Amino acid sequence: xxxxxxxxxxxxxxxxxxxxxxxxxxxxxxxxxxxxxxxxxxxxxxxxxxxxxxxxxxxxxxxxxxxxxxxxxxxxxxxxxxxxxxxxxxxxxxxxxxxxxxxxxxxxxxxxxxxxxxxxxxxxxxxxxxxxxxxxxxxxxxxxxxxxxxxxxxxxxxxxxxxxxxxxxxxxxxxxxxxxxxxxxxxxxxxxxxxxxxxxxxxxxxxxxxxxxxxxxxxxxxxxxxxxxxxxxxxxxxxxxxxxxxxxxxxxxxxxxxxxxxxxxxxxxxxxxxxxxxxxxxxxxxxxxxxxxxxxxxxxxxxxxxxxxxxxxxxxxxxxxxxxxxxxxxxxxxxxxxxxxxxxxxxxxxxxxxxxxxxxxxxxxxxxxxxxxxxxxxxxxxxxxxxxxxxxxxxxxxxxxxxxxxxxxxxxxxxxxxxxxxxxxxxxxxxxxxxxxxxxxxxxxxxxxxxxxxxxxxxxxxxxxxxxxxxxxxxxxxxxxxxxxxxxxxx
Amino acid sequence: xxxxxxxxxxxxxxxxxxxxxxxxxxxxxxxxxxxxxxxxxxxxxxxxxxxxxxxxxxxxxxxxxxxxxxxxxxxxxxxxxxxxxxxxxxxxxxxxxxxxxxxxxxxxxxxxxxxxxxxxxxxxxxxxxxxxxxxxxxxxxxxxxxxxxxxxxxxxxxxxxxxxxxxxxxxxxxxxxxxxxxxxxxxxxxxxxxxxxxxxxxxxxxxxxxxxxxxxxxxxxxxxxxxxxxxxxxxxxxxxxxxxxxxxxxxxxxxxxxxxxxxxxxxxxxxxxxxxxxxxxxxxxxxxxxxxxxxxxxxxxxxxxxxxxxxxxxxx
Lengths: 491, 316
Fold this sequence. Notes:
The structure holds two protein chains of two kinds.
Chain A: E1 2-13, E2 16-27, E3 31-35, H1 42-49, E4 57-62, E5 65-67, H2 72-77, E6 80-83, H3 95-99, H4 114-127, H5 144-157, E7 162-166, H6 174-189, E8 193-197, H7 201-207, E9 210-215, E10 218-224, H8 230-238, E11 255-264, E12 267-275, E13 279-284, H9 290-298, E14 305-310, E15 313-314, H10 320-325, E16 328-331, H11 335-339, H12 346-355, H13 366-379, H14 396-410, E17 414-418, H15 426-441, E18 445-449, H16 453-459, E19 462-467, E20 470-476, H17 482-490
Parallel strand pairs in A: 3-8, 3-9, 6-7, 7-8, 13-18, 13-19, 16-17, 17-18
Antiparallel strand pairs in A: 1-2, 1-4, 4-5, 9-10, 11-12, 11-14, 14-15, 19-20
Helix pairs in contact in A: 12-13, 12-14, 13-14
Chain B: H1 2-7, H2 9-27, H3 35-60, H4 68-84, H5 90-114, H6 119-138, H7 147-154, E1 156-157, E2 160-161, H8 162-180, H9 182-192, H10 194-199, H11 204-230, H12 241-251, H13 263-282, H14 287-315
Antiparallel strand pairs in B: 1-2
C-alpha cells in the first residue's frame, strides 16, 4: 500500500532547478533508500517533506489524501520525522530535554514533570540499546556518535509514521551502525516507512528494500534491491563509470616527518615516520584520538611530551602560523565550522593561505590575489561561476577543493587531511584523491585521517590504526583489509 | 552594477544620502545647502566618526566596545588634570592621556581575547570603571585649558575646522590599512570564522587585542579633540556616544556577527545620522522626535536591506 506518494514535484532556486518533476512512492513498512550525488536534490526533497520548503509544482499524497506541508510543525502533525545530517541538538541542555524538545510531559498547570521526562527518556533509550547514555547528561558531554544516536531517539520520540534519515551513519562506529540497522528493521516490521539517505552504497544494499535514484534534480527510477547492481547504481547516479581506485605509489626513501613518543590530551606515546611521496592513512573509530594527534602536530593544540621533527629539524610550534611557515598544512574535519569562511568569496578563502605566509606585513594586491585564485580554481576544477562567488553557495565537494586550494598556495611539505571526503559525492571524491595523489607524486608527504575504509585501502601506502589514543597497529598497502583494520580498531 | 549597490551598503547608503540632500536642498534652499551648514554638520560628527572608525574595525572582527564613550571622557580629563593641576607641558599631557587610553584597550583586549570574557560584559564593566575614573580625576571638570591645547581643536586649515581634517585623515588611513595591508585584512577572516582563521595561521588572539587597543586609542584621540574644542575637560563628555557610534557603524554596513563592513561606511553612517538630525533641526522638529525618528530609520534601513537582498537573490 502506498503510504506516501510524491507526484511531479519541482522546485527552483536562484540559478538552478533543484527538483524537476520528481516522483516517489513509499510503502508502509519498507526501508526506501534515496541515492544521488551531492546536489542531486535529495536534501531539497527532504526539506519539502519536512515543511522547510514549499514545492513550486507537484502534489504530495499521504494516505490517499493530498496534503500541503506549510511548516515543520505541520510535518510533525502528519507524523513525518527527520534526522538531519547536521545535528539539531542544543548542547547546553540534557539528553532528555533534547529528545522531548517542545513536547515535554507537563502537569495540568503546564509545569514540566521532570521525573516523568527522565523515565520516558530512559525507556526510549533502552529500546535503542543506548543504556550507557544517562538522560540527565548534558549533550555537550556526548561523543559525536552518541549525539547522532540521541538525534535518532529525538526523531522517534515523536512516534512518526514516516522516518527520514539523512546520512545517519557518517559519525557512527561499525557497532553502532549495526545497532541502528537492527532498530530500523524493527521499525519497518512495525509498519513505519523509513526513507534512508546515504553515500555509503554498501549500507544501502545491506539495508534497503527498494532504491530510488536522483540525478541533477531528475528522477532516475526506483528499483528493487535485487534488481540493481552496485556498478549500475553508480552509473545511474553519476551518469558515467568511475574507474576503480588505482594505486601508483610515489613512496621515496627520505623521511619527511618524524613523530616520537608524542603524548597529550586523549593520546599517548604516538611514534611514526612519514616519507616523501607517501600517503599514510590513519584509521580508527570516531573519537579514537586521530584528530587530536593531527592538531597537536600542526600546533593547533599543545602536547605534553614527545617531539615532532620536520625534515630533520625540531618543529617547536605553539601556533599554526609557525607550522605553516615551516611547511605544514592541515585540512580540518568539519569543513564549514573549521575550514571555511562561508560568507566570504572563493578568492578570499583561497588567498588566506598567503595572508599568513609569504606576504605577511606587506600590502594586499587584489589583482594578484584574483589571478592566484582563478589559477587554482581552474587547476582543481572548482565548479562556480567565478572566484567572487560566496563559498557558502558551493557544494560540499567544491568547498573541500577550496580548502585544499588554500594549502596548495602555501606549498607545504606535509599535508594532514582529516576526513577529506566526508559528505562529498562520488565524483568529487575521486577528484580529491587525484589531487592528493598528484601531491604525493611531487614528493610531498600526506597523512590522511579517514573513516571511509575503502578509500584508505585504495590510496594509502601504509595504514596506522589508532585505538583509544594509542597506535594499535600498522598495515602495509598489500596486507591491509577492512577486516584487519576493524579488528585492530575495535577490540 | 545593481548587484553591487544591493550588496555593498556604502553604495546604497551613498545614493540614499544624495537623495536626502537633494530633497532637503529643494525644501530648504536658504538654510540647508550652504557651506556654513555643512561644515557645522561635519564638525559635529567628526568626534563620533573618529571613534566609529575603530568601532567598524572591531565589528568587522566580530566584537565591539561599549567603553569608548567613557574613554573619551577619561582621556580628556586626564590630559586636563595633568596640564592644570600638574602644570605639565601640552604634548606630554596628551601622550600620557593617550597611554591611559591604550592601557584601557589593552585590558579589554587581553581579557576578551586571551581569557575568553564576552566583549559585551567586559566592555560594559569597563564603561562604568573608566567613567568613574574620569569623575575621580576631574571632579566637576577642568576649565581654562592652555591656549595651545585649545588650538588643536579650534583652529582652521583652508577655512575648515581642524577636527574635520583629523576625521578625514583617520578615515583615509584606516581605509587604506583595511583594504591594502595583509595585517589588517585578517580582521575580515576573524569575523568570518574565528576557528578557521586560527587554523589558517592567523594569530586571532593577538589581532583581537590589537583591535581593542586601536579602538581605545582612537577614542582617546577623540576625547582630547573634544575637550580641546570645548576648552574644558568634562567627565560627562561622550555619554551615549558608544550607542550612537554603533548605530552609525551598523547603518554603514557592519554586522554584529562580524565579517562585514568597510571603513568609509563608518563615515557615511555618521554623516547620514548627522544630516537627518540637521534637517530635523532646520525644520524645527522637537528633540524628542529626533531620537524616535533616528531609531525608526535604523530599523527601516536594515529591514529594507534584508528585503532587497532577498528579492534580488530570487530574481537571478
